[in-house]
Amino acid sequence: MPRLMLTDEHWSKLRTILLEDRVYDKPEHRQTMEGILYRMRVGCPWQDLPDTFGLWNTIFRRFLLWTRKGILQRLFKKLISEPDFEWIFIDGSIVKAHQHSAGASSKYDEAIGKSKGGNTSKIHLAVDSYGLPIEFTITGGQPHDSKAAKPLIDMLPYANYIIADKGYDSEAIREQVRGRNSIPNIPRKSNSKVGNDDIDWCLYKYRHLVENTFEKLKKYRAIATRYDKLKANYESMVALACIMCWLPM
């Protein structure tokens, strides 16, 4: 029997939200969710899912359906309970794209970048003052963090401070943050002529919270390495990993 990830309490939370989202209450949904979680944890091909969870094709088709309808994304958002938006930390992390993730028959950008290091994607993540995920975007691995910051910041709720590392050293980003009536706490690079007199270094030390969250997400092998051909499918996997961060709360 494979190790399961959902306790009765956790499933009760998910089941309630699924019912609110008009997902028909089928008895096999819990095992289907466990099958999707198993694949996220071990990173195996869908065809190699243990029979304990049911037919692999049934689980895969259910995952595709929930992805197309945005159900896993909404699950993530609805599980966000009593977040602390006094501080918001943002950062990006590279993910190696497995060779099986390439070659999708799609006319859309599937967020896989090509470079000397091979195929990569990047997760751009925002966490609250507790270090819990609140928003994320997926891009190819080649864009610089500062280039991908604008859409992520636009998605964020109001916060007193938005904290990021030197990779986000851009006056355009600072102006965007100030335009939201928030205070940017972003160090300038060593060659800057302005200096860092305005930086709250004590607050900046808490930036490890977003790094810790990346560690929690990447303990799942299907997050640490991208196996999904479609961007939407990988986004659903990342949303599911974020769900697992919020379920115990």
General description of the model:
This protein is an alpha/beta fold. Helix content is 41%, strand content 16%. It has helices at residues 8-20, 29-42, 56-68, 71-79, 145-155, 171-179, 201-204, 208-217, 221-224, 231-246, and strands at residues 87-97, 113-115, 118-127, 133-140, 161-163, 183-185, 225-226. β3 (118-127) and β4 form a beta hairpin. α1 (8-20) crosses α4 (71-79) and α2 crosses α3 (56-68). The longest helix has 16 residues, at 231-246.
Instruction: Name the overall outline.
Output: globular
Biggest pleated sheet: 7 strands, mixed
Q: What is the arithmetic mean of pLDDT?
A: 94
What is the highest CATH level, the class of the largest domain? Alpha Beta
| CATH architecture name of the largest domain | 2-Layer Sandwich
Proportion in helices: 40-55%
